[in-house]
Protein backbone atom coordinates (compact mmCIF):
# COMPACT_ATOMS: atom_id res chain seq x y z
CA UNK A 1 0.00 0.00 0.00
CA UNK A 2 2.72 2.48 1.03
CA UNK A 3 4.76 1.51 -2.01
CA UNK A 4 1.84 2.27 -4.36
CA UNK A 5 1.33 5.72 -2.81
CA UNK A 6 5.00 6.57 -3.09
CA UNK A 7 5.03 5.37 -6.69
CA UNK A 8 1.96 7.54 -7.50
CA UNK A 9 3.56 10.58 -5.88
CA UNK A 10 6.78 10.09 -7.83
CA UNK A 11 4.77 9.68 -11.03
CA UNK A 12 2.81 12.87 -10.38
CA UNK A 13 6.02 14.68 -9.54
CA UNK A 14 7.68 13.49 -12.75
CA UNK A 15 4.65 14.47 -14.82
CA UNK A 16 4.59 17.92 -13.28
CA UNK A 17 8.33 18.34 -13.83
CA UNK A 18 7.98 17.10 -17.42
CA UNK A 19 5.24 19.63 -18.13
CA UNK A 20 7.39 22.34 -16.58
CA UNK A 21 10.47 21.50 -18.65
CA UNK A 22 8.49 21.13 -21.86
CA UNK A 23 6.47 24.29 -21.46
CA UNK A 24 8.72 26.88 -19.92
CA UNK A 25 12.11 27.20 -21.55
CA UNK A 26 10.78 29.11 -24.57
CA UNK A 27 8.66 31.32 -22.41
CA UNK A 28 11.43 31.97 -19.94
CA UNK A 29 13.64 33.09 -22.81
CA UNK A 30 11.01 35.41 -24.21
CA UNK A 31 10.45 36.99 -20.82
CA UNK A 32 14.18 37.39 -20.32
CA UNK A 33 14.52 39.13 -23.68
CA UNK A 34 11.73 41.56 -22.92
CA UNK A 35 12.75 42.40 -19.37
CA UNK A 36 14.33 45.85 -19.11
CA UNK A 37 17.91 45.97 -17.96
CA UNK A 38 17.66 47.72 -14.57
CA UNK A 39 21.14 49.18 -14.95
CA UNK A 40 20.18 50.82 -18.23
CA UNK A 41 17.17 52.39 -16.57
CA UNK A 42 19.19 53.83 -13.72
CA UNK A 43 22.08 55.13 -15.83
CA UNK A 44 20.02 56.22 -18.84
CA UNK A 45 21.75 57.10 -22.10
CA UNK A 46 23.99 60.10 -22.60
CA UNK A 47 22.16 63.38 -22.16
CA UNK A 48 22.81 67.05 -22.78
CA UNK A 49 21.93 69.38 -19.93
CA UNK A 50 20.50 72.77 -20.88
CA UNK A 51 21.00 74.98 -17.89
CA UNK A 52 22.11 78.32 -16.46
CA UNK A 53 20.12 81.50 -17.06
CA UNK A 54 16.92 79.85 -18.26
CA UNK A 55 13.43 79.59 -16.78
CA UNK A 56 13.07 75.89 -17.55
CA UNK A 57 16.31 73.91 -17.48
CA UNK A 58 16.00 70.45 -19.02
CA UNK A 59 17.94 67.40 -20.14
CA UNK A 60 17.74 66.05 -23.65
CA UNK A 61 18.72 62.48 -24.53
CA UNK A 62 20.27 61.55 -27.84
CA UNK A 63 17.04 59.80 -28.73
CA UNK A 64 14.96 62.92 -28.00
CA UNK A 65 17.40 65.02 -30.02
CA UNK A 66 16.58 62.85 -33.03
CA UNK A 67 12.88 63.63 -32.64
CA UNK A 68 13.28 67.42 -32.55
CA UNK A 69 13.05 69.78 -35.54
CA UNK A 70 16.14 69.03 -37.58
CA UNK A 71 18.19 70.77 -40.19
CA UNK A 72 20.86 69.59 -42.62
CA UNK A 73 23.82 71.86 -43.21
CA UNK A 74 26.67 71.64 -45.70
CA UNK A 75 29.80 72.81 -43.86
CA UNK A 76 33.58 72.40 -43.85
CA UNK A 77 35.63 71.90 -40.69
CA UNK A 78 39.05 73.62 -40.55
CA UNK A 79 41.51 73.64 -37.67
CA UNK A 80 43.54 76.83 -37.03
CA UNK A 81 46.61 74.57 -36.76
CA UNK A 82 46.31 73.56 -40.43
CA UNK A 83 44.25 76.41 -41.85
CA UNK A 84 44.20 75.36 -45.50
CA UNK A 85 43.26 71.72 -45.09
CA UNK A 86 39.63 70.67 -44.74
CA UNK A 87 39.40 68.13 -41.91
CA UNK A 88 35.80 67.28 -42.67
CA UNK A 89 33.52 68.32 -45.49
CA UNK A 90 30.01 67.07 -45.85
CA UNK A 91 26.42 67.17 -44.68
CA UNK A 92 25.69 67.58 -41.01
CA UNK A 93 22.24 66.92 -39.58
CA UNK A 94 21.06 68.07 -36.18
CA UNK A 95 18.97 70.46 -34.13
CA UNK A 96 19.52 74.24 -34.29
CA UNK A 97 21.21 75.38 -31.08
CA UNK A 98 18.85 78.38 -31.08
CA UNK A 99 15.88 75.98 -30.83
CA UNK A 100 17.47 74.00 -28.00
CA UNK A 101 18.20 77.02 -25.84
CA UNK A 102 14.98 78.91 -26.60
CA UNK A 103 13.01 75.83 -25.57
CA UNK A 104 14.39 76.42 -22.06
CA UNK A 105 13.13 80.07 -22.04
CA UNK A 106 16.19 82.29 -21.91
CA UNK A 107 16.41 84.86 -19.11
CA UNK A 108 16.96 88.49 -20.14
CA UNK A 109 20.41 88.83 -18.59
CA UNK A 110 21.99 85.95 -20.56
CA UNK A 111 24.65 87.13 -23.03
CA UNK A 112 26.74 84.06 -23.80
CA UNK A 113 26.49 80.31 -24.07
CA UNK A 114 29.14 78.04 -22.57
CA UNK A 115 29.44 74.53 -24.01
CA UNK A 116 31.03 71.62 -22.16
CA UNK A 117 32.22 68.24 -23.46
CA UNK A 118 32.69 64.92 -21.68
CA UNK A 119 36.51 65.18 -22.07
CA UNK A 120 36.61 68.52 -20.23
CA UNK A 121 36.90 70.58 -23.42
CA UNK A 122 34.85 73.79 -23.52
CA UNK A 123 33.94 76.50 -26.00
CA UNK A 124 31.58 79.47 -26.13
CA UNK A 125 29.38 81.49 -28.44
CA UNK A 126 27.65 84.84 -28.14
CA UNK A 127 23.93 84.41 -27.57
CA UNK A 128 23.03 86.80 -30.40
CA UNK A 129 25.23 84.88 -32.86
CA UNK A 130 23.31 81.70 -32.05
CA UNK A 131 19.91 83.35 -32.33
CA UNK A 132 20.87 84.87 -35.70
CA UNK A 133 22.20 81.67 -37.27
CA UNK A 134 19.92 78.65 -37.70
CA UNK A 135 22.84 76.80 -39.28
CA UNK A 136 24.60 76.49 -35.93
CA UNK A 137 23.38 73.02 -35.06
CA UNK A 138 23.98 70.28 -32.52
CA UNK A 139 24.65 67.56 -35.09
CA UNK A 140 24.01 63.88 -34.47
CA UNK A 141 24.74 62.78 -38.04
CA UNK A 142 27.60 63.35 -40.47
CA UNK A 143 27.14 62.17 -44.07
CA UNK A 144 24.37 59.85 -42.92
CA UNK A 145 26.43 58.25 -40.12
CA UNK A 146 25.49 58.65 -36.45
CA UNK A 147 27.96 60.70 -34.40
CA UNK A 148 27.97 61.72 -30.76
CA UNK A 149 26.48 65.21 -30.50
CA UNK A 150 28.81 67.90 -31.79
CA UNK A 151 28.40 71.55 -32.61
CA UNK A 152 28.60 72.58 -36.26
CA UNK A 153 29.45 76.26 -36.65
CA UNK A 154 29.72 77.09 -40.35
CA UNK A 155 32.37 79.70 -41.12
CA UNK A 156 34.11 79.37 -37.72
CA UNK A 157 37.32 77.54 -36.80
CA UNK A 158 37.20 73.96 -35.58
CA UNK A 159 37.70 74.92 -31.93
CA UNK A 160 34.06 76.06 -31.89
CA UNK A 161 32.94 72.66 -33.21
CA UNK A 162 32.84 71.01 -29.79
CA UNK A 163 32.36 67.23 -29.82
CA UNK A 164 30.61 65.01 -27.25
CA UNK A 165 28.57 67.87 -25.73
CA UNK A 166 27.24 67.20 -22.24
CA UNK A 167 26.22 70.66 -21.08
CA UNK A 168 24.96 73.91 -22.60
CA UNK A 169 24.92 76.75 -20.10
CA UNK A 170 23.57 80.28 -20.53
CA UNK A 171 25.64 82.85 -18.66
CA UNK A 172 25.68 86.62 -18.05
CA UNK A 173 29.46 87.05 -18.28
CA UNK A 174 32.21 86.69 -20.86
CA UNK A 175 32.80 82.92 -20.52
CA UNK A 176 35.74 81.74 -22.63
CA UNK A 177 36.36 78.14 -23.68
CA UNK A 178 39.55 76.07 -23.81
CA UNK A 179 41.19 77.75 -26.84
CA UNK A 180 39.47 81.12 -26.46
CA UNK A 181 40.91 81.50 -22.95
CA UNK A 182 44.33 80.55 -24.37
CA UNK A 183 44.19 83.60 -26.62
CA UNK A 184 42.57 82.39 -29.83
CA UNK A 185 39.98 84.83 -31.24
CA UNK A 186 36.64 84.48 -29.52
CA UNK A 187 34.65 84.97 -32.74
CA UNK A 188 36.83 82.33 -34.51
CA UNK A 189 35.76 83.75 -37.84
CA UNK A 190 37.49 82.12 -40.84
CA UNK A 191 38.76 84.78 -43.22
CA UNK A 192 38.46 83.96 -46.91
CA UNK A 193 36.99 80.52 -46.37
CA UNK A 194 36.11 80.37 -50.07
CA UNK A 195 39.79 80.44 -51.02
CA UNK A 196 40.75 77.42 -48.87
CA UNK A 197 41.02 73.78 -49.90
CA UNK A 198 37.87 71.75 -49.45
N1 LIG B 1 35.26 67.56 -27.03
C1 LIG B 1 36.16 68.11 -27.83
N2 LIG B 1 35.74 68.72 -28.94
C2 LIG B 1 36.62 69.29 -29.78
C3 LIG B 1 38.00 69.30 -29.49
C4 LIG B 1 38.44 68.64 -28.31
O1 LIG B 1 39.63 68.56 -27.98
N3 LIG B 1 37.48 68.04 -27.51
N4 LIG B 1 38.89 69.93 -30.36
C5 LIG B 1 38.34 70.94 -31.27
C6 LIG B 1 39.24 71.33 -32.34
S1 LIG B 1 40.51 72.38 -31.92
C7 LIG B 1 39.07 70.93 -33.65
S2 LIG B 1 40.03 71.53 -34.90
C8 LIG B 1 38.02 69.95 -34.01
C9 LIG B 1 38.59 68.76 -34.74
O2 LIG B 1 37.53 67.96 -35.15
P1 LIG B 1 37.73 66.45 -35.60
O3 LIG B 1 38.30 65.71 -34.42
O4 LIG B 1 36.36 65.96 -35.95
O5 LIG B 1 38.65 66.44 -36.77
O6 LIG B 1 37.29 69.49 -32.87
C10 LIG B 1 37.02 70.47 -31.90
N5 LIG B 1 36.16 69.90 -30.92
MO1 LIG C 1 41.75 72.71 -33.85
Kindly list the characteristics that best describe this protein:
9 strands; 2 domains; binds molybdenum atom; Sulfite Oxidase, Chain A, domain 2; 31% strand; binds the ligand Nc1nc2c(c(=O)[nH]1)N[C@H]1C(S)=C(S)[C@@H](COP(=O)(O)O)O[C@H]1N2; 198 residues
Could you explain how this protein is built, in words?
With 198 residues, the protein is an alpha+beta fold. It has two domains: 32 residues; 136 residues, Sulfite Oxidase, Chain A, domain 2 (Alpha-Beta Complex). The protein contains five helices and nine strands; from the N terminus they run ααββαββαββαβββ. The strands form two sheets. Strands 2-1-9-5-6 form a five-stranded mixed sheet. A four-stranded antiparallel sheet has the order 3-4-7-8. β1 and β2 form a beta hairpin. It is globular, with a radius of gyration of 27 Å. About 17% of the residues have low confidence. The structure holds the ligand Nc1nc2c(c(=O)[nH]1)N[C@H]1C(S)=C(S)[C@@H](COP(=O)(O)O)O[C@H]1N2 and molybdenum atom.
Q: What is the CATH third-level topology name of the largest domain?
A: Sulfite Oxidase, Chain A, domain 2
SSE series: HHEEHEEHEEHEEE
CATH superfamily of the largest domain: Oxidoreductase, molybdopterin-binding domain
Q: Distance between termini? A: 95 Å
Low-pLDDT residue spans: 9-42
- Name the beta content range: 25-35%
The whole-number mean of residue pLDDT values reads 85
What is the CATH architecture assignment of the largest domain?
Answer: Alpha-Beta Complex
What structural class do you assign from the helix and strand content? alpha+beta
- Rg, please? 27 Å
CATH class of the largest domain: Alpha Beta
Taken from the alpha-carbon principal axes, the silhouette is globular
Q: Number of DSSP helices?
A: 5
Number of strands: 9
Tally of separate domains: 2
Amino acid sequence: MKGKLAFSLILIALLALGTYWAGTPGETKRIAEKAPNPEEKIQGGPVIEITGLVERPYNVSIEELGEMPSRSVQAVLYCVGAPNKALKNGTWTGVPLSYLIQRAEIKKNAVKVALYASDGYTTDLKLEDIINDENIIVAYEYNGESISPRLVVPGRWGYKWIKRIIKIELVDYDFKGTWESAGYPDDAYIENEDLRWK
